[in-house]
Specification:
Distance between the termini: 10 Å
Helix content: 25-40%
CATH topology of the largest domain: FAD/NAD(P)-binding domain
Radius of gyration: 22 Å
CATH class of the largest domain: Alpha Beta
Largest sheet: 7 strands, mixed
Number of strands: 19
Shape: globular
Number of domains: 3
CATH superfamily of the largest domain: FAD/NAD(P)-binding domain
Strand order of the largest sheet: 7-6-15-16-17-14-18
Strand content: 15-25%
Structural class: alpha/beta
Length: about 450
Amino acid sequence: MNVAIIGGGLAGLTTGYELAKVGHQVTILEKRSTCGGQVGTFTVGGGRLEVFYHHIFWGDGEVIRLASEFGLADRLQWLDSRVGFYHRGKIYNFVTPLDLLRFRPVSLLDRLRLGLVGMYLRRYRDWQRLEGLTAREWIIRWAGRRNYEVVWGPLLRGKFGEMADQVSMVWFWGKIHQRFASRGRLGQREKLGYLRGSFGLMVDALVERIQRIGGHVLTASPAARIRVEGGRAVGVDVVGQGMITADRVIATVPSSTLLGLAPEISGDYRRLLEKARYQWAACLVLAISQPISPIYWLNISDPSIPFVAAIEHTNFISPAEYGGKHVLYLTNYVAPESPLTTASAKEVLKLYLPHLKKINPSFQERWVQEYHLFRDPAGQPMVGVNYSSNIPAYRTPIAGLYLANTTQIYPQDRGMNYSLRLGLAVARAVLGDMGREGGGRADGQ
């Protein structure tokens, strides 16, 4: 069968790879000039790195499996993570239990509560019981108001803005559960994984494998409309290229984008798509001559600083990989109406530069050798209470049309591993439907 996939990110490429492997004719349509989505890459100092910061955790089995399948396992490095917390002009290490005991912005009792809550959530499995609670109310009840005000509240507000108080406890559980699981036994340092040469190598391998087995990956090919005839998807109109016919269409796009591509979607499914809310991801990447701090991942607990984290990639991967330059991601999540969604890279740089002196008083503007701004309007889905009742199914009401996007990853949060898992799940759904509808065996034969 002919399958058209809209979107060349990890979910779309994985779906295409799985379907092409069993003999289906796959065409992937990517609007950008390169594939990868949020794992797209660019170069600094001759080295390749992601437009948005990336690493993996010990439990990210799909990434590890695919790296092995593509012969990239020897490039996967597991390195100690250095996490810190910036509060009231001071950087605190946040790596070991001893670091937590030294975290003086909260009382000793609150420090103990903070550690106990982390240990509890690390082992907690029954996330369904948390669905009716917000992160705010759960944290205040069990970790204390001071811990919420100093530690978790600023991070939630940095991620979700004015919607922070509505964020589901399940979302918070997922973040803590995943993060603490990467520490191994109690007291061990956190280990994070990175693919030497960037995770773009995995994107390249997916594209190459799809093309090798007869599929097509078309970049600079934005979809204009999903063609629907007799209540069934029959193809995709591509800007400047006409219609690509298909027996199945898979859209790996934000929910609102699918509504624009297929306005025929109606009823309860349409209402679910209309409910989806996203925060923009805005990431300013600096190549600088000197490090800002010794910390890899520096969380910011200061409402006067206009970014939520300073992620110094070259405190994780050697600057030698990037021509000796130090790479710093200044990341933010903002509402669609924020000026940061339209500001130029130069304007964002001007806004952020004074705040780097708060982190490192020695910082000078002349340290900045180059800068790049990357944005994604669907950077972070808003996950509210009882979110499971708001998740659209993979199968849309239009026969032969499927959806795969980050609103469906719940209870996990967005990430490479879950994008790969989503692609596998949608591929299985499509193959199952093909078998039931008499379009050939589910294995494509």
